[in-house]
Amino acid sequence: MRRAETKMRVASIAAIVLALAVPAAAQDQADKTEKRPTVAHNAPPSPNATINLINLLVKQGVLSEEQAAALIKQADDEAYVARQAVRDAATKAEGAEKRAATAADAVSPPGTKRVTYVPEIVRQQLREDIKNEVMAKAEKENWASPGKYPEWAQRIRFFGDVRVRYEADLFPPGNSPSTAVNYNAINTGLPYNVLGSGPNGNPYAWPTYDTNQNRSRPQLMARLGMEADLSDGFWAGFRIATGDSSTPVSFNHFEGGAGGNFSKAAIWLDRAFIKYSPVSNLTFYAGRFDNPFFAATDLVYYRDLAFDGFATQASYEVRPGITPFVVASAFPIFNTAIDAGSTLDFTNSSVIPGKAPSNDKWMFGGQLGSNVHPVPEVDFTFAAAYYDFTDVQGQLSSPCFVFGTQDFCSTDLNRPTFAQRGNTYMALRNIVQQLDASKNLLPQYQYFGLASAFRDVVASARLDLGQFDPVHVILDGEYVRNVAWNYSDIAAKVLANPVFAGPTAGCLNGATCPQVYTGGNQGWLARVTVGDKQLAKLWDWNAFVGYKWLESDAVVDAFTDSEFGLGGTNLKGYFVGGRLALGQNVWLSAKWMSANQVAGAPYAVDIFLLDLNARF
């Protein structure tokens, strides 16, 4: 009987405990993060009355510690269910309130004002949402972050590089000094008297390039550029750079040059463009910008050459790892001035004065190629291009009178405004010969133009093998052929030249020795590079070796490599070099180039370059 009463008492107390535990556990959600009170005979007092009651029952021996722990767990589980029910009920109530408010608004007359009760929990959530929205905007626009640029300034990127170079030009004995005529010096200055200093002429009076005096030249190059993201796919940018002249293929300032005595370097506008990319694989360019074509080497265009005009690039991944691309362009090379020179042409036994005709020169180009990425370690890019140079070929003028250096003939504008060396030239002026009182020929001031037309077909390829990561093996190759080249036409113009023509030795007008054209229209270059693809950290390195063959009239010499053989065409030989990173953005490079003439009179030069480079 006594045992039965004890059991009934325990059951009653347990029921009371459960009844108290459920609301006690659910009364404050924050309590769930606290450590659960210990149930034991000697447990200290707890702020929770239910826990104190259970501990008292354990102390009196009514409940064991295991039974008490089970009761508390059951109470927690039921409290969790109760809290979820309360949340669901609150959510449904809020939804019902909104629907009721909507219905009331629908039937209320205009002008009726309603005041809706907003629970504290909803107001708290609204405050948090507004705070987060304001902070997100502040972070995006940086007006809440001291020391940071505003959002519009972050869309502007500045970049640049500096190079300090030592160059040694070494000429072996045996070069012919009389054949390296500097046509660029003539065409960019006053016309030259082809008769030389006397009635019979003097071949050594012509301006020529150095072919036998060694030179060592310290040089400096600095460039600073900016690109701005204008939003909606539009970009704009420009770059300024050093240089001793406006030559398109060199930024070198020769230290001690330009007058010497620590004279300042000139600064030129090298890039200025607007770019539009409506989608990621389509881009339009306008202005003065980088070479838009894929070029594996410097065989046709030097790597620093900027292009004036318009270009479009498009690509599309037809299948994973295969992305064909196409490039189309139009570049003005020379535009006739509005008030071009006056002519004195001799036509039909009469002198007809007038203005020179327009003779604009353009280069139109197109390229089709593809990037193939069959596996992560192999990257292969190849392309075929066609470049059509219009009106760059020299044309013989109509008969004209030339009495001094200021006179102008009808085809003077056909002469190149910049040239290096190697292309074959022809006399532009058909001068009506005049005699002085002693029956000697008056000076014949002449300009010169390119003897060949240029329409180049170019094949380019690059294979990047990364199986030896971080070391890469990169194979570059390029081939060019001038399909507008005509041997017979050029040979006839060379024979008529009053001075040395192109890469061959010639004779003065009227001399008996023949002038033979030995130039060509093809070129190729192959190179192997081994090492790190990017010099990203200290001691990263790469090394390269290659061979170049470029005949006299394969490409326009003005736009090709300005370093190998001191620039231009009619050159063949090898080059070798390497680069070593001295830091993340600083590296040392060295290069040795040995060049010889392809055809014509002997010419050879070895060039050593040692560069310290930095970029930012």
Task: Kindly describe this structure.
The chain has helices spanning 2-26, 49-59, 65-107, 120-141, 151-154, 183-187, 487-496; strands at 156-170, 192-193, 215-231, 234-242, 253-254, 267-279, 282-289, 307-315, 322-334, 342-347, 350-355, 361-372, 378-390, 425-427, 445-446, 448-450, 454-468, 471-482, 522-532, 541-550, 571-581, 586-597, 604-615. The protein has 7 helices and 23 strands. It has a 16-stranded antiparallel beta barrel. It has a two-stranded antiparallel sheet with strand order 2-15. A hairpin with a 6-residue loop joins β8 and β9 (322-334). Helices cover 19% and strands 35% of the residues. α1 (2-26) runs antiparallel to α2 and α1 crosses α3. The protein is elongated and about 145 Å long. It is of the alpha+beta class.
Sum this structure up briefly.
This protein is of the alpha+beta class. Helices cover 19% and strands 35% of the residues.
